[in-house]
Design a protein that fits this description.
9-stranded mixed sheet, Structural Genomics Hypothetical 15.5 Kd Protein In mrcA-pckA Intergenic Region, Chain A, Pseudouridine synthase, 7 helices
């Protein structure tokens, strides 16, 4: 439990801003969880994050949540050496927490014990990210030198990434490159849209299988992102009218999002070229064949 008394310099501050100054390690958005959980009181009354602070106010904070470390997940390891670790990420798991407050186990927090202690923050070791609903191959760096080496391959498009997705409808033609710029959606800043003036983005797709279920058509696509924009595959597939099945943001939602990072080709810090693969999840096989 932490206790503070507001002084004149705090006059008129929002309570969440006040706490950000006291807990400098944490972002304002991270600390809002304390307010949502009723762990912040002003003058012995549970306070909202928007409450204005006045001189002499007594602020008490139950800060145990800030120190909580969620138990690590048992994650399938595809490969490991002194520089990197490659994990087969399950669907539904975050790559890293959105702030310093770790309210749930992530890939980053679960692998933290393997990462050089000199690397700090909730993203320590993270080279690239996969969306929560996306499963498959993800690589982490164990030290800063390896992180820089690997991230450069992603930024210069030398990392070979292939995905599998089940989409609504059957794209025509069966093989094409979607070349459409992507920008942040001003109406929903956490999402993205195809928009003139956005960042150049290209996605190649191949149709592998098709099926009709309950009068609806679906296709299994192999996807190769030629650029690396946030939500690129999901945005491009929505743009051509074939959103990823189960996508809660760009599609109809319902069930797991059918997007899987199948393989990653990359040169390791040792100089060795490697191709890491993750088998197609049982959910995909069941969707088409009704068997695991």
């Amino acid at each position: 439990m932490r206790k503070f008394t507001a002084d004149k310099s705090s006059e008129g501050l929002r309570a969440d801003v006040f706490l950000t100054r006291k807990f400098s390690k944490f972002t304002r958005s991270s600390l809002k969880q304390l307010f949502k959980s009723g762990l912040v009181k002003v003058n012995n009354m549970v306070a909202k994050s928007s409450r204005k602070v006045h001189p002499s106010d007594k602020i008490t904070v139950d800060d145990r949540l800030l120190a909580d470390v969620p138990p690590p997940l048992k994650l399938p390891v595809i490969y490991e050496d002194k520089d990197v670790i490659v994990v087969d990420k399950p669907a539904g798991v975050l790559t890293h927490s959105k702030g310093a407050l770790n309210s749930e186990a992530t890939i980053a927090s679960s692998m933290r014990f393997k990462i050089d202690s000199a690397m700090h923050g909730n993203r320590a070791g993270i080279v690239h990210r996969l969306d929560r609903g996306t499963s498959g191959v993800i690589i982490l760096a164990k030290n800063q030198v390896s992180l820089n080496y690997l991230q450069k391959q992603f930024s210069t498009r030398r990392a070979g990434k292939h995905y599998q997705a089940i989409v609504e409808g059957i794209p025509k033609p069966p093989h094409a490159v979607i070349d459409a710029p992507i920008a942040r959606n001003p109406k929903r800043p956490q999402t993205f849209v195809v928009k003139s003036g956005g960042k150049a983005s290209q996605t190649e797709y191949h149709t592998k299988r098709t099926i009709t279920k309950q009068s609806k058509s679906y296709a299994l696509l192999e996807l190769k992102p030629l650029t690396g924009r946030t939500h690129q595959l999901r945005v491009h597939l929505k743009y051509i009218g074939h959103p990823v099945a189960g996508d809660p943001v760009y599609g109809r939602g319902g069930g797991r999002m059918m997007l899987h990072a199948q393989s990653l080709g990359i040169t390791l810090p040792s100089g060795k070229k490697q191709l890491f693969k993750s088998p197609l999840p049982s959910a995909f096989r069941e969707f088409f064949d009704g068997s695991k």
